Amino acid sequence: MQDSQTQAFAGKVLVLSGGVGGAKLVHGLANTLGADQLTVVANTADDFDHWGLRICPDIDSITYALAGINDEKRGWGLKDESWRTMVAMRRLSGEDWFQLGDQDIATHLYRSMRLSNGDSLTDITADIAQRLGVTTRLLPMSDDVVATRVYSDRGEYEFQHYFVRERCEPKVERIEFIGIDTARLSPLVKDSIADPELSAIILSPSNPFLSIDPILSLEDCRKLLKNRGVPIIAVSPIISGRAVKGPAAKLMEELNMPTSAHGVAEYYGDLLDGFVFDELDAAELDVIRNTGIDCRLEQTLMTDMASKEHLARVVLDFARDLKR
Amino acid sequence: MQDSQTQAFAGKVLVLSGGVGGAKLVHGLANTLGADQLTVVANTADDFDHWGLRICPDIDSITYALAGINDEKRGWGLKDESWRTMVAMRRLSGEDWFQLGDQDIATHLYRSMRLSNGDSLTDITADIAQRLGVTTRLLPMSDDVVATRVYSDRGEYEFQHYFVRERCEPKVERIEFIGIDTARLSPLVKDSIADPELSAIILSPSNPFLSIDPILSLEDCRKLLKNRGVPIIAVSPIISGRAVKGPAAKLMEELNMPTSAHGVAEYYGDLLDGFVFDELDAAELDVIRNTGIDCRLEQTLMTDMASKEHLARVVLDFARDLKR
């Protein structure tokens, strides 16, 4: 652990992020950096169609968090939300396993309408963010469709069907990112990686293989990042062997990955220059350091704005130290 | 005027109807007849796409009225409605000229989803009605798209754009039903016309050329009805030269049609055996009778359930008299 430094961070920061957990650190970074310093790349492999609408859970979680309109307590969706369309839809279709709030539905309607008009997810995401008052640059990883598919002991599922409808109950045998081989990494993401002012790349505390891996797997993204020559730092989403949010730990177990900070560090492997993980996992410090990755132990649980901003500063300070 | 008779009507009744005004008489008929006696054919030429959703204003007005969940006071949509999706959509798109309530949106979402799955509007309409507890048989006039187009002094409009967004302000030069020449009359409507038990055909007090004419213009519908050999009765939507609801009178004026009960009777011409119009227009009785159409003068303004049922009984009694 270190004292947080008060110097402003110089240069630009690129963050790869999934939804809820990642969005917290993104929010902390957005409050710590200038709007022109931060670019967020969102995973879109969880995206799916529901009620004929295009739903982008990670993009929306990040957008809503940055706009300050997310429901912190529930952990997803919008605060001050209502559910009247869903109740009426249940009456018509009998289907209500995926909860969409009345205000949230507007986002999906607007996005679906513009997608069918031929607009790109990149442009639509930027416009929604702008309309909601978000100044941080948020980019979908791709404008092409990538869809996480879960193969389990009970059959195949679209990710949200497995995650929400089946409550992660089926035992996962493997996952696949349908479309990953042909989807192109967003040109704007490529530009951000190539930006001469880029000073740090951060892998947010999202699920490493469900949220971060799809981004890294697009074209030669992993190599582009690795060869960029700026510090790459991951923040562990695992604390004391448990995923803070989401099915990471259960999935890692079923896919025979260690459910530990060490497991996360190993998963990212030589991509990382630095790794931030929780003080509660201090026992793993030596084994992770022995893989050649620089480490920071920190309280990584983000329960309020102060803890998000604190973790953001820790990561940025770490990046500055690594750059020296 | 005549006293309402209390005998039950024998045989089946086919009603052609537009939205709000027509839906009132339909509701009265549904309360007066057995569920197996009444078939309602709804105009779909006002249907349009909005926010990527398929909106069928006349089908929905009739369905909601029959389900007893329509907002009588507002005159359209659902009662106990809320508008949170619309407010959120306004923030995103800046567009809110067509008001869609949160519960109502579920209907459009459900319909759009099923249409894109390849289901027919006929099947979807029946399923929505059934889910909302409606027992009356409601048929879209066609499963093919017909779209009313308004040509005005300010240019061309989709009907709802002219009607709602432009508040009927542009001066109409002509209207056209795009697709009417190739669209097929619903086979189930044809079956209903051919039904040996059919005893009356009613043109509800909807706009004659915007709501009823599209139905009559499908294939040889007008001829099928005319040659069927059962009484055809229209109820005038015009009272004292004013449309009870909607832009009928203004349109009729701009299209050089008489804005009167007589004008409505003339418009339908030799299709009609009987014509029901308002006591306030008693001065027109002779001129209409002279065209060879049997007439009933009645209080045709439907302000509550009792007046809807009363007018329904008047029309059914009239049909029985004409059949003798």
Automatic annotation (TrEMBL), chains A, B:
Any matching Pfam family: CofD
CDD domains, alphabetized: CofD_like (cd07186)
EC number of this enzyme: 2.7.8.28
Keywords: Magnesium, Transferase
Entry GO MF terms: LPPG:FO 2-phospho-L-lactate transferase activity
InterPro entries (UniProt xref): CofD, CofD-like_dom_sf, FbiA/CofD
Protein name per Swiss-Prot or TrEMBL: 2-phospho-L-lactate transferase
